[in-house]
Amino acid sequence: MTKPTIRLPEGFYLHELDVIDSTNDEAKRLADKGAQSGALIWARQQTTGRGRRGRAWSSPVGNLYSSLLLRPDCPLFEAAKLTFLIAVAMAEAIEMVSGNQIRPDCKWPNDLMVNGRKISGILLESASNDGTQTDYLVIGAGVNVAFYPDDAERPATSLAALGAPTSVKDVLQTYVARIAHWLPIWEAQGFAPIREAWLTRAYGVGEPVIARLTQRTLEGTFVGLDDDGALVLRETDGTEHRIGAGEVFFKT
Mean pLDDT throughout 231-237? Predict the structure, then answer.
């Protein structure tokens, strides 16, 4: 680990690396060794980065690859809602470092979009003490700062491509500062203010959506987010479904 080159808010501890297999894997290794909440792993390059469902995440030098270790004192189902807090924090950070030129949308459950193209992805992994109570969360977050993959499954973009070049350090420092802003709010008030902030940036609200679930596929309109963070899909006959997990495709 090299000497830290950025400053973080109180309660956050930087582990800065040139190359790592995966920042999430490194965070889990540290967690298993007893690392405290607030450990932040930042690598300039990953050799086996991944996204949701094990998809490969292109990780060249020039983009942001980070993972945050948290140990919230709550059940796993409550801790999982922190994905939305991270999305809001990262969206605000991107907006701030771009000089308010770029306003990312939050795509359920864990992507940030600009003009219909992905600029950031989030991956949450967890461990429990007894099957229900949280031992730790590892929340990986990546941002296309200088580059974006041209062979991605879905269209992508970067800060540089959008005319807002900045440094990875600036994005990371601003992102962690926004987490430090939102975490006490979540601890004091719960999910409601996070949900409200996320919905102000929600991608595809009021638009057609397809949800591919394990047993079936649903089509309807994305009408909101429920109190547990599930996507609410309304069919043409008015029937509403709450989608907690699955592949979701927006037609916007």
Answer: 97
> For residue 162, is it within any domain?
yes
**Do 129 and 56 share a structural domain?**
yes
| Strand pairing category for 64-70 and 240-243 | unpaired
Q: Order the strands of the 240-243 sheet from edge to edge.
A: 240-243, 231-234, 217-225, 208-212, 247-250
Domain that holds residue 234: 207-250
Rg (CA), the chain: 18
Amino acid at 129: N
Question: Does the global pTM surpass 0.85?
Answer: yes
CA 41 – CA 21 distance, rounded (Å) = 12
pLDDT band of 7, cuts 50, 70, 90: confident
Domain boundary among 160, 175, 200: 200
Q: Where are the beta strands (DSSP E) in the chain?
A: 13-20, 39-46, 64-70, 105-107, 111-114, 117-128, 134-143, 208-212, 217-225, 231-234, 240-243, 247-250
